[in-house]
Amino acid sequence: MQEAACRLLARENLTPDDVSELANLCRQQGATPHSPPKAPSLPASAFSARTAGGALRLNSISEVKGIEALNPRAPLTFTGEPLTIVYGGTGAGKSSYVRILNNACGSKNRRKIFGNVFEATAPQSCKIGYTVDGAAKDLAWRPADGLQAELAALEIYDTECGHVYISAENEVTFEPALLAFFQRLVDACAAVDKLIEADLAALPSKQPVMPAEYTTTTGAAWYGRIGVLTSAIDVKTRCEWLPTHKEQLEGLQARVAAKNPAEQAKQLRTRKTALDKFSYELNALRDGLSDAAVSALLQSKADAAAKRKAASEDAEKVFTAAPLDGVGLASWKLLWEQARAYSVGVAYPEKPFPFVADESRCVLCQQTLGDDAKTRLQSFEKFVKGELELLAKDAETALAALVKKVPAVPAAEDFAARLTVLGLDDETVTQKLREFRDGADTTREALLTATAADQIAAVPAAELIADVAKLSGELEAKAKGFDDDANKTDKTGLEKQVRELEARKWLNEQMASIDGEIARLKKIAALNEASRLTNTTALSLKKSELAQSLVSAAFIQRFQDELKALGAARVRVELIQTRTSKGHVFHQVRLKNAKIPAATADVLSEGERRVVSLAAFLADVAGIDTDTPVVFDDPISSLDQDFEESVVARVITLAKKRQVIVFTHRLSMLTHLEDGAKAAALPARVVAVNREPWSAGEPGETPFITRKPDKVINGLLNDRLARARKILTENGRTEYDIFAKAICSDVRILVERLVEDALLNEVVRRFRRAVHTQNKIGQLAKIRVEDCQLIDEFMTKYSRYEHSQPTEAPVPLPEPDEIAADLTRLQTWLKQFTERPVPAAGAKA
Hints:
- This protein is of the alpha/beta class.
- The chain contains 28 helices and 12 strands.
- The strands form 3 sheets. Strands 6-9-10-3-11-12 form a 6-stranded mixed β-sheet, sandwiched between helices.
- A hairpin with a 2-residue loop joins strand 7 (about 575-580) and strand 8 (about 585-590).
- The protein is elongated, with a radius of gyration of 60 Å.
């Protein structure tokens, strides 16, 4: 609230960025309530603009760009006179200047400043000149800059003050500035709270509803108590789902579902037996491919190879002279042993092999053996039955025995099917078992061909075999549970345990949403704390308290006094405080002693509402003891002659103490103000604003009817006639006639003003109802016949140019020299007449 107050004092209205930043500040403080940011201090002069003290004077508005239809070439200036009257016709740009001041000083119910909606305009900006405590300053201002603190004391009354003086129901209302500040602060809190409420609305609960069957479990009770204080450890303790929980639940569910517990126990033990066998086979596979078994087989391979090499070298010596290659090889040995079997069993029974007696034949080719053949066969037999060959055969036999002992590894498909049959559905265990099988298969294949240990990969670790054994033990425990169930009939306890575990499993499945709900509740708690910071109860109470003080009997009396001063005492209204609601303190001008309930706006006329709102405004201004400007924009709109004159008198009185600037389009208002200022000996200045082809709001010459006759004559002689001469010389008579006719028309108006202001000494004037005789009518004694003749001469001469001219004898427009001579005659006459003394009584003028 202090940050919002500082911003409101600096800028009057908060921007969307301000509201967003304040909401972020609340969110930050809501998230860390124990370490709030340091609150800013309100400036010592926070409300000084509304209290006695510093003097403010408005000097000018210049360099206006892109603001509505304004684009003047000259500045609108306010000089040292207490009263400045800015006169201009409808659409001349007066209200646009007022709106600039409205937004720069933070007036009530400011209207947004647009660019020129009919043209592409430049960026909006202007320069405001003012003086504060004697120091002149120039402020480069843009509508986006909003309130300027040094201009906040500027008071403005215009038709758009309805937010303050006329309610939405067209009832007259009033709210003092300090209360309005409190209201803006309340509105700022509401705007910030709206953003926070949007944050809260964007955080709906996504927490699933626990199934009804678990509502009686301890898990459901905990689930219902989840809040901002629920810790991660608590969530883990309540929601953790381990393999042991799964096994426990499945076991309990099976026990509850079992109709024949004894049969279930039997099936479990059957499965246990199969698991034990499977475990035995895994152990055998592990042992058969252990490092010791692999080492023994490789050593046997090496021994057989060495002995076979020795026997082969011996055979090479024997068979070197053999006509054919390959003698001594395994194929040859097989042929030799078959030949031996045929010889001793069929061809030469009971005869030694090879049989080489006379006439003996080869048992293979049936030819008679020669001496070389007999010798060769005997050497072959000697080799086969030699010691080295026997050692080689023994080593090879031992190797074959070891190879036979290498355990077979089941095929992958068979192994997977075995796992399914055994009911091993734990993916972690089955994956390790498959890896063990695959590793064992790789080791076995390599072992059969390898000659060194580094050619064989080790079998994967077999700790999982213990898991199988553990599972077997668990099956036995389950079987015992079924044995116990076989002796019982009530399963209520089992069912309760099942629901507890099922509730835990459900909670485990919702862990992500539980974590999200806790995070959401923490955000909501922080946002609720942030929203609490925007609570306006204290502001509303303080505003109501201030309203009692500020809208006091003295203020109400000032309001009544202003009504009387404005000639509206007959309007039966009173200013009262109506109600207080969420920081809104309502004050209304209501009908006084009305017998029938009715809205003020329904009874008062438009003019009465106008004068009553002016009374409320002036009562507020009169209650502030400060030397600051007051600006009126057409204050007498909708007022009749009586009210108009009363308003003028009140404005003149106000201008004696403060700078007053009145924007008006009414000549009657201008006349009344000039007369009132003159009567009060109050310096006043009239400024005209015109709508030119390039821009509205262009300061320029005031109309003749607003200027003194001597100044009009000087302007015609020194400016208008000089331009007329130049046009005649450079452009010719046709263009000169147009310009000269306008001058002649203005001369005629000048003569009329001479009659009112000089000849008749302002005793009677147009737009003024009163006839002023005091200290004036005696001057009429100065009038001579010659004066009347002069006026009549000029009225006759210069009226001719206002009428349609005859075709055959048109009246020519006078030359510049002729007009100059006439103006000089009028100037001389005015000076002489003004200085002419009033003749004594009875004497001739």
